[in-house]
Amino acid sequence: MSIKRLALFGGEPEFNRPLHVGTPNIGDTKRFLSRVETLLNRRLLTNRGPLVRELEQRVAELLNVKHCVTMSNGTAALEIATRALGFKGNAIVPALTFVATAHALEWQRVRPIFADIAPRTHHLDPRGIERLATSLTSGVIPVNLWGRTADIDAVTRRAANRGLAVVFDSSHAFGCTYKGKPVGGFGNAEVFSFHATKFVNTFEGGAVTTNDDALAERMRLMQNFGFVDRDTVIHVGINGKMNELEAAMGLTSLEAMDDFIAHNHANYCAYLEGVEDIDGLKLVEYDNSERNNYQYVVLEVDERATGLHRDPLMQALHSEGVDARRYFYPGCHRMEPYQSRPKPKGQDLTLTEAALSRVVTLPTGTAVTPGDIRRIVLLLQELLEHPADVVQRLAKQPHRATLSSV
Questions:
Q1: pLDDT tens-digit map of 93-111
Q2: Among 38, 44, 108, 293, which one has the highest count of C-beta atoms within 10 angstroms of its own C-beta?
Q3: What is the CATH class of 3-14+257-324+363-396?
Q4: How does pLDDT run across 56-72, given as a tens digit for each residue?
Q5: Shortest CA distance to 271 belongs to which of 333, 184, 361, 162?
Q6: Phi-psi category of residue 264: left, alpha or beta, with phi > 0 → left and psi -120 to 50 → alpha
């Protein structure tokens, strides 16, 4: 490929239809529509109908936990789980996460205290728990990022030393394992997102899983206005319920889950093979000893080796119809209302800042094929062979909005 053929230099984009990081997986359309027809004929669309109950049972069995409580979305799931556990004052979270992790606390007037990631990982450094915890700290929300798990044993041990509740934000880690055990039964509870961009989705939606009977009962009350029966309210609550249409999509997704993972794995392997000989590009690898969902393909760009910073490389990919994303830039600590607050004593986010400057996520999922990935890899090779030309060309172009996300 000649550089003159690239869209940045006046050529046609490599992909006429943009490839996104999170294009939804659909599953068997006929199975889904059959479920929709059934629920419409039943005329029971919400309020914990049979499809929601079936989805909760299927998820609990899959994750080997006693309770699954479905929710309207992952953020509501975080809010309800942490409130049910009595979070107050402040709670420790990584800064390298989607802002909903922090907002779920802030919305309840629980202040997020941002901790750094551990060396050689993108996960919460367990040592930060004891370093940042004060008498006002009530809990920890570690994030199992990219479909890889944090050091769960170390996190729970250090939290226990401080008497802190632990809710794992496992939005990325559905279907994964830690030391051979399914993610879902760790800490006091685990929260999942079934947003449309997740490899198993319910359009919108989420869930909390736990082995704590009393906690599960409180959360069921809280996500349905506190009703214990048709007329009796015994707890404060909101409307956090999943509806039957979403559950129909969730059940259809679960049936295709193994196929989704196999496709994601093939894509991951294509990327891994494609970038292994490109200096300065390193794929964040999965642990082959664990079960993985291969949902995210995460690349680190070393500017010293490539001669090109992550951002211009990403902009050049956008011009070719490759909607690469710099998750989760610029970090929760640099978003409002958090960046305007005084820095907590002992906070050091050096490793987080470094990761945020070099991480880029690449398109995958069933809408992307290994053949598409080979074309993306060729684009990366061509762009990195001409870093100075790329920077110069971008400098001459007017600012343009990046591709929209799915």
A1: 999 999 999 999 999 999 9
A2: 293
A3: alpha beta
A4: 999 999 999 999 999 99
A5: 361
A6: alpha
